[in-house]
Amino acid sequence: MSSRRDLQKSLRTNFNPGPRDRLNRIRLRARQALHLPSLWMGGGLRNPVFIIGAPRSGTSLLYSILRTSSRFAHWPGEAHEVWEADFHPALTGWESNILRRTDAYGLEAERIRRSFFLVTGSRHRLIDKTPRNALRVAFIDEVFPDARFIFLKRDGRDNVNSLINAWRTPRYRTYALPEPHSLDGVDPRWWKFTLYPGWRDDADGPLEVVAARQWQLSNEHALDDLATVEEARRFEIAYEDLVDDPEVRAGELFEWLGLDYEAASRAEAFRSRSAPINVVTPPERGKWRRENPDEIGAIVPLIAPTMKRLGYGDTDDQ
Hints:
- There is one protein chain.
- By secondary structure, the chain is an alpha/beta fold.
- The protein has 13 helices and seven strands.
- It has helices at residues 4-10, 19-40, 59-66, 80-83, 107-120, 137-143, 156-167, 207-226, 239-244, 246-257, 263-271, 288-291, 293-310, and strands at 49-52, 72-73, 125-129, 148-153, 173-176, 190-192, 234-238.
- A five-stranded parallel beta sheet has the order 2-3-1-4-7, sandwiched between helices. It has a two-stranded antiparallel sheet with strand order 5-6.
- The longest helix has 22 residues, at 19-40.
- The protein is globular and about 60 Å long.
- The mean pLDDT is 91.
């Protein structure tokens, strides 16, 4: 097994850091040092905000808008090295990314609180976007009892289509597996996106089943966990509504969060109409019909119950 230090380095967002990444790392360390006195004086996070959604559901788009608020601070990139420093799958038998309320005790939870506070300090609120957190909402709620959760849902057919496309690119490497998988058309050394319970049963493929299970279980676990959170601390938004009217939807979110809708955030919401964020191919509703119609048609029965639970209605309109 790799050392904990090696595992933690593997959790950084960029596997091939360039000068800009190194500069961001230096800035992060400087910010952490600046906030140490506040930590020593007993400072802690207040009302952190967590964007929850399946991978490729549009969380990067929403995050790009919200984090422009002057009231927010965030970890550079996705904060996998914070969440998984003590919970990397290699340390837990490669079972899954799931964390429960009962895991949120002891030094590990305190380290997570401390790590994020050293980014925000006492003057800012944390905003975090980590899609694997869809499998650990209850854990987060236990670590941060005053957290706010924004749940972003997306039509499963389009979301799974996006996951299939992303699996087939060289990007989005997540875990170097101890043993290779056998999914057709993708690098067998790497698992991408969420590691869900029972993933080994699907490791021989087909790829569309893995992508469908990632979407299905991310949403099912998120919905189940969010149901245990007070209604006032959770907000649901559809990706389709966000794309159709980003300025209005962002404004609704800022109002719910009790924050001013600043000019920079309005500008970023407007810009998102013509500058897609973190995409493999440009956004298009129903794109699965053109890109992966056979694969999506095959997994519709698998995702149909979750689609209905999310309010997407009939999945027979293929």
